[in-house]
Write a structure and sequence with these properties.
Shape: globular
Strand order of the largest sheet: 1-2
Structural class: mainly alpha
Distance between the termini: 69 Å
Number of helices: 16
Order of helices and strands: HHHHEEHHHHEEEHEHHHHHEEHH
Helix content: over 70%
Radius of gyration: 25 Å
Number of strands: 8
């Protein structure tokens, strides 16, 4: 695999980041709002109160607008694997393509089938059948997210595969190891529950807008009640699954964890930084500059979260590069130099295997195959030139992680306060809290974007952890051509985003059906 100029790599990464981040503007609202509208319709079916029917119909309308544009951006993103990342697709397509195929065949068709009943079947099917279609629509959307996250998790923790030396491809050997990877399962629950928080913040924020405008008061309070309770549950579960994420990252991606905490020197009983500021003069893991200008640390919490042992040793960036510490399985971590050397051995044995097979030397070929398999877990290190190449961008990873956590804690407090004021019947009179609720929508979107920055920046330089760096995964497309498509995509996606916001805003200003706004 020929390494391309860094400008091509940067352009390909920029294009994918652009499309992924635009796409992720729409997905969390779909996943969160979908459950909320289903809960509201469930209340309608159980109580027979028509106001809940029209409340559910209003939020379903906003769900449909957002869902349609989210589908459009997602389709464009998947095509990039064949255009800008063809080496990656060739190398792992047999594995990576499987969950994406399942997502399209099973989950997407499930959504497409029942969403039509949900929107057009109100007066054509029974209440129970319609409610089932609503729940099946959001179930399909959630399953769709699951299979996409399985694909992403496999890149972070490749499992259930074997490298075929004859085809030069990784092939799936254990479907369930891929589909039920602990990284995939935890990533799914963390992503979905955080999306519930986004949907809840949207519903509460829009409800607060109606209160500020002193219109549709009953509808707004009813929506806020459901949204706030659901949002509090969502963010509490997000915090819980975040703990699971920290554990999985510690076990599978120690370099990412070190970057998240700005931890350069490993230590026993490592604390978790609550608030901190990185030192911009820290240029390398090898210099003697203090990595933090200041930090407020919770003692021993990082060790406890990562190893379930408050006194456990947590490796820092320097430790991961230099090796020598004990891994969770009891073996000793190799240094970058040792891993690169073993990666080079795998590369050379792969080349020798091809020659031996061509010349009919089956015994030699079998020996070379064994060498490749013994060293394949370090295959990607042969593409790296220096120790610094295996260190992700610490600044982006550190600040994204800590800001994301702070916003998550804010929302737990925010939804608790909203519920308190609602129960005291003071929410419609508390103007300052209504404005906080409206502007908190933006914070929820920021938090979910920051989560993906942590996940993707933190695993650099890898496309597939330890096996294939991004520099070896790109296609032979010039930087200029990629730049042209970046501009085109940016214009298209910005247009779609403006259209989405405009249509949503227009529908919100129009308001719900009058029956949904009547007072009790």
């Amino acid at each position: 695999m020929e390494l391309l100029a860094i400008t091509s790599v940067d352009m390909a990464r920029t294009q994918f980041a652009l499309t992924a981040m635009y796409h992720w503007i729409f997905v969390p609202l779909t996943l969160g709002l979908g459950v909320i509208m289903a809960i509201m319709e469930t209340i309608y079916v159980r109580t027979g109160d028509e106001k809940w029917k029209y409340t559910a119909k209003f939020w379903q309308k906003l769900f449909g607008i957002n869902f349609a544009i989210g589908v459009a951006t997602g389709i464009i993103m998947e095509f990039q694997f064949g255009t800008n990342w063809s080496n990656y697709s060739l190398f792992v397509g047999d594995i990576f393509g499987a969950p994406l195929a399942i997502e399209g065949i099973l989950a997407f068709f499930m959504e497409a089938t029942f969403i039509s009943i949900m929107f057009f079947g109100w007066n054509r099917v029974s209440k129970g059948a319609h409610l089932a279609s609503t729940w099946l629509t959001i179930t399909g959307a959630t399953l769709s997210a699951y299979w996409i996250l399985v694909a992403n998790a496999w890149m972070q923790y490749p499992a259930g595969m074997e490298f075929n030396l004859d085809t030069m491809r990784n092939e799936m050997t254990d479907f369930w190891a891929v589909a039920l990877s602990p990284v995939a399962v935890n990533k799914f629950f963390h992503t979905v529950t955080s999306s519930w928080g986004v949907g809840a913040s949207f519903v509460v924020g829009v409800g607060c807008w109606y209160l500020i405008r002193k219109r549709n008061i009953d509808f707004a309070l009813r929506s806020i009640k459901v949204g706030a309770i659901f949002g509090l549950v969502g963010f509490l579960l997000t915090a819980y699954t975040g703990d699971g994420s920290a554990y999985e990252v510690t076990q599978k991606q120690p370099m990412k964890l070190a970057a998240m905490e700005g931890l350069y020197e490993g230590k026993e009983g490592a604390g978790l930084i609550a608030v901190g500021l990185l030192n911009p003069n820290k240029k390398s893991f090898n210099d003697d500059v203090n990595p933090h200008l200041f930090k407020l640390e919770i003692p021993k919490l990082l060790s406890l979260m990562g190893y379930r042992n408050a006194n456990a040793f947590v490796p820092g960036i320097k430790d991961v590069v230099e090796g020598g510490y004990t891994l969770p399985d009891g073996t000793t971590a190799l240094s970058f130099s040792e891993m690169r050397e073993r990666g080079k051995i795998a590369h050379q044995a792969l080349a020798d295997y091809g020659v031996a097979k061509q010349e009919g030397r089956d015994t030699d070929a079998a020996n070379y195959e064994a060498i490749v398999k013994d060293n394949f877990k370090y295959f990607g290190y042969a593409f790296l030139d220096a120790e610094e190449d295996m260190v992700p961008p610490v600044g982006v990873t550190f600040y994204s992680f800590h800001l994301m956590v702070m916003i998550g804690l804010y929302f737990i407090l925010f939804f608790a306060v909203i519920i308190f004021f609602h129960r005291k019947k003071k929410l419609h009179k508390t103007t300052w809290l209504q404005h906080v609720g409206l502007w908190s929508i933006a914070l929820a979107y920021l938090a979910t974007q920051l989560g993906w920055l942590v996940a993707e920046f933190g695993r650099q330089p890898w496309t597939i952890q330890d096996i294939l760096p991004v520099s070896a995964a790109v296609s032979g497309v010039s930087a200029g051509n990629i730049l042209a498509t970046i501009v085109i995509f940016m214009l298209i996606f910005t247009g779609l985003l403006i259209a989405n916001v405009t249509i949503l805003t227009k529908q919100i200003k129009k308001g719900p059906d009058p029956l949904a706004s009547e007072s009790h």
